[in-house]
Please model this.
Amino acid sequence: MFQPGSIVRCVLAVVLGSLAAPLGAAQVSGQFNVTVTLQSGSSPTPTPTLPQSAFCTTSPGGQAFGATVTVVCSTGAFVDIAPSRTGQPWSPMHGGAYRYIFQASSGGDVLGTIDSYVGIGTTTSWRVVNAVNWDYFEMTTAW
Amino acid sequence: MNIRKYLLSGAFAVAMFAAMTPTAQSAQVTGNFNVTVALTSVCTMAAIGDLAFGTYTAFQAAPLVATPTTATLTCTRGLAGVTANFDTAAPGSTAAAAAANAVGAGVVQGLQYTILATAGAPVAGTAATAGSIGTGDSRPFSITGNMPASQAGDPTQNASPQVRTLMVNY
Model:
């Protein structure tokens, strides 16, 4: 009744048909935004420029008891006017606060993932001197 | 007197007959029928949040990883062979062929990035019952992004935000 060749052709047609048009093929899609803020020299919103230091000066002639001392700070915050040692005269220049842009690094390499944060902070530094052989080390603390 | 007696006897006979004889041939006949339906499987996708890289400082030493976002699909229960891929409509964007996980890349603000949509384990819905319509399967895709280090960037190339599309095939 049926020729073997016709059966083979029917089977082949069914197989090819199923490959060409999978049942229920459909698609759903959704959009999302990829966002980034590029921080560069030409960025439209650069990091605010901050003063690098806030040195203050005092007027001369303020060594006598009861004298009026004028403290002039060019920029930034004024910390205090206490002399470094009791009984010592006023220094004509008194170091104060430093405003800076801090980025954690080690040997010039930015550390881990915290490098992405560049913020505003305050720093201070001091030097410890060994009076025997005048060795010293300096330390900078930022917060 | 006799008439009354006969009437009572007659009424009694009718009542007994009615009680003993079934009413009008009670019986049952049945017919089968088929309930048919052609189910077209569908997935719907909820709105996707931004893939936010945050701030990239030009020439920064470390790669920048975006905060992941999620595409959540609700699908016909028991779907198999679900694949996904990203679009290539955004300028400079590329996408791998549809697969279990979608892979793509692009450029925004002159910064190259790669994106990956990873299919999470489907959360099976509840089956329908005669008293409940049931719920669909939940299929999450977690979308992550990575921006290589040491890039100069270009504020004039491909503004941020850049629209990308995740397509899920089933």
